[in-house]
Target: Histidine triad nucleotide-binding protein
Amino acid sequence: MSDTIFHKIKNREIPSEIVFEDEHVFAFRDIAPQAPVHVLFVPKQDFATLNDVPADSPEIIGRLATAAATYAKREGFAENGYRIVMNCNGDGGQTVFQIHLHLLAGAPLGHFGA
Ligand code: 5GP
Model:
């Protein structure tokens, strides 16, 4: 997999505030936020799309979700609520081909699809 903009953020080659990091996951604010809080959670192991994650490694995706929940609790909006989304390929609207989970929060987001 070739380098993406997210590799450059992880390696601090381009400026972006890392708001969460552990052994497996790093997270930073989306450059074009779609909600008052819009953070992207990225695994340190590289996969272009969700289709590339081995079926016997569900922990790679699970860690993104639990990192998002940990961040939401730490920042104090977990009880109000939030949304997590992962886009896959063209019809899913994926534009950066390094898997990432969107965390959206900070306002009522409405019913999905409404
Ligand atoms: P996707 O459409 O692939 O699910 O989401 C990619 C996200 O990456 C978009 O929401 C887009 O705004 C964000 N993004 C693209 N380039 C940059 C960048 O250079 N810095 C940051 N922080 N976010 C970016």
Remarks:
- Helices lie at 5-10, 59-75, 89-92.
